[in-house]
Specification:
This protein is about 0% helix and about 65% strand. It is mostly beta strands. The chain folds into two domains: about 5-115; about 125-200, Sandwich (Immunoglobulin-like). A four-stranded mixed sheet has the order 3-4-6-7. A four-stranded antiparallel sheet has the order 11-10-13-14, with no helix packed on it. It is elongated, with a radius of gyration of 19 Å. The two termini are about 30 Å apart.
Length: about 200
């Protein structure tokens, strides 16, 4: 059995809790494990810049059947901004440490804390929308260099570029080859402002 079969992440969704106090962001997951029984052994959340990493360790029984778990994790009290949330789900048994297991899978999603489409920093706003997988509109109140990176759901980089933008609306074409079907994350950096867009290629 391969690691992808032993740990299959079927759903991962991050949510902003408007009235959250010590926890204003959660991650809801659906994970299938190749085992007769499974339970959550523990998890850890680490925030670095605009990336939230959640490591979840599951313990389970034998391989003769499958077990599906639905879990909700607190991501903490995050400041206003756009984030990439990375889930690493690992499976172990017989007390083996999750750090050394080969049964592991990874998935990504996005999370917006605060007003949708806006990263608030020093009164500056950035609004961006995709027109397709290879073009976008970016509206900003200050000129500068916009760094654009495109990742797939496994974290592989498909595009990286820097574009000069002016005040107001900017139409930006991206030199991206035809992407296969799947989920992609567009990470836009303009000065200290950040925006993450999600695109599903059919």
């Amino acid at each position: 059995m391969t690691s992808a079969q032993a740990v299959l992440i079927q759903e991962v969704n991050a949510h902003f809790l408007q009235d959250g106090d010590s926890c204003n962001a959660i991650l809801a997951t659906k994970v299938r494990l190749g085992s007769t029984g499974c339970w959550l052994k523990g998890y850890n959340v680490n925030v670095e810049g605009d990336t939230v990493l959640l490591d979840a360790c599951y313990d389970s029984g034998m391989f003769s059947a499958t077990c599906t778990r639905y879990d909700t994790f607190c991501l903490g009290n995050l400041p206003i901004g756009a984030y990439i949330v990375k889930l690493v789900a690992s499976r172990t048994d017989n007390g083996v440490d999750c750090d050394v297991t080969n049964w592991r899978n990874t998935a990504f999603t996005t999370l917006q804390i605060g007003p949708v489409g806006i990263k608030e920093l020093g009164g500056d706003n950035i609004i961006a929308t995709l027109r397709g997988y290879n073009s976008l509109n970016l509206n900003t109140s200050h000129p500068g260099t916009a760094g654009i990176k495109v990742y797939d759901a496994l974290g592989r980089l498909h595009h990286s570029s820097n574009t000069q933008v002016s005040v107001g609306k900017n139409d930006i074409d991206l030199d991206i080859p035809n992407l296969p079907r799947g989920l992609y994350l567009y990470h836009i950096q303009l000065g200290q402002q950040r925006k993450v867009l999600k695109y599903v290629k059919q």
